[in-house]
């Protein structure tokens, strides 16, 4: 077997592709995608526009990579759920937890995803992927209801929207640099979702 000895493509000194994408996500969140130009990104990085184009093909390709980062994490969580054994209820718990973890790990990209409106082919594709994710989450809630481990008097689609709407709302206030760590955050969301706020009354002995 002959090994490929071709050298990996290197970026310009000081910035690799990941740094360019991260800076673009921050700018898109701060200024809005439509209002951000490649020139703005170059100024943010302290390089020329040609240096930015050395790493990426276009502004839309940056948006696509950012949205794929957020969506890919959520899709992977569902793939893991499909591949795991066990009751739908347990798989749903794991998906809720993993969704919180993805949001914490990729908060800027998830924030951007939640702000797209379908103004470009890339945004419309992202919205289609979100709808598929939402439908699969609702189906998982329905499966847990049908097996008798969740309440049967609530609409699965509504439950799914409310639960994952709560998860999505974390982008508005959660700060990774704060005192609340990701594990505690995920534990709290899962506990609130599946056990509620009522104090647990010990059963009589």
From TrEMBL:
Residue span, HTH tetR-type domain: 14-74
InterPro entries referenced in this protein's UniProt entry, alphabetically: Homeodomain-like_sf, HTH-type_TetR-like_transc_reg, HTH_TetR, KstR2_TetR_C, Tet_transcr_reg_TetR-rel_C_sf
Superkingdom: Bacteria
DNA-binding residues (ranges): 37-56
Keywords: DNA-binding, Transcription, Transcription regulation
PROSITE patterns (alphabetical): HTH_TETR_2 (PS50977)
Molecular function terms, GO-annotated: DNA-binding transcription factor activity; transcription cis-regulatory region binding
Cited PANTHER family: HTH-TYPE TRANSCRIPTIONAL REGULATOR BETI, HTH-TYPE TRANSCRIPTIONAL REGULATOR RUTR
Protein's recorded name: TetR family transcriptional regulator
Biological source species: Nocardioides flavescens
